[in-house]
Amino acid sequence: MGNYNTIGAEITSRCSRLDLRVMLRYGQIKNGCRIVGSIEWTFGGSVSYISDCTGTTKYLRLMYTCKNRNGETIQMDYCITIDTVPSNLGKGELLYFVCPKSNKRALVLYDAYGSQIYAHRDWYKDAYGMSILYNSQQTSKQWYANTRYFYVKREVDSLKEQIVGKKYKKVHYKGQPTKDFKKLYKLTDRMHRLDIERCNSFVALCNSKYGF
Predict the structure, then answer these.
(1) What are phi and psi of 21, to 5 degrees?
(2) What are phi and psi of 8, to 5 degrees?
């Protein structure tokens, strides 16, 4: 069961969203390039886009159809600025979306509560009085470990797909584990600990409810 004060709140995993990391990974946004394409959501709907990172002003132009609060169909056409920040490692740049509503930087922008526009997660609290919650925030303390387990497992599976078995992907460099391999090791360890926690929670629930 979720917390009583989260009733009616939207959840990140169920919202239409733009994830800059995913768009970079699939070549939908690329520094120095202008790319035209579209994104189709698994739950229906699509967004046409133009990503332009060729000039000093980088942006993502979005074009899509949605319904307003009166149920009327409207055409959306607007740009989201893409900001560049020098990497902490001193090599290259990091890219961020700039929320068209709050001007905050973000890697992920959400379309929720009928806003009709993709915006920073924090903006919804001020605009609608309700935040967009993570799955774990709607999960009771008793089932938190179970929810987190599957979240971490998805990360582990995704990272394994990226680095394990790839012909030119090294897991060690000069005798030391690579950054990605260290991350995979930590995530796998976290997943195993969460697995134990969720099993213990299930046993405790059975003991309290059925007297096992």
Answers:
(1) -60, -40
(2) 90, -10
Structure tokens at 37: 């394409």
Q: Which residue has the tokens 């989260």?
A: 6
Tell me the torsion sign for CA atoms 7, 13, 18, 19. Answer: positive
Joined together, the tokens standing for residue 5 give 């004060």
For residue 208, what is the DSSP state? H
- Transcribe 108-145 into DSSP letters: EEEE-TT--S-B-TTHHHHHHS-PPBPGGGGS-GGGHH
Query: Which residues, listed in sequence order, are joined to residue 176 by a DSSP beta bridge?
Result: 173
d(CA 191, CA 196): 9
On whether the CB atoms of residues 30 and 20 are closer than 8 A, the answer is no
Distance between CA atoms of residues 17 and 108, nearest Å: 7
Q: Does residue 17 contact residue 134 with C-beta atoms inside 8 Å?
A: no
pLDDT tens digits, residue range 165-206?
555 456 666 667 777 778 888 888 888 887 887 787 777 767
Amino acid at 114: G
Residues 6+ positions from 196 with CB-CB distance below 8 Å: none
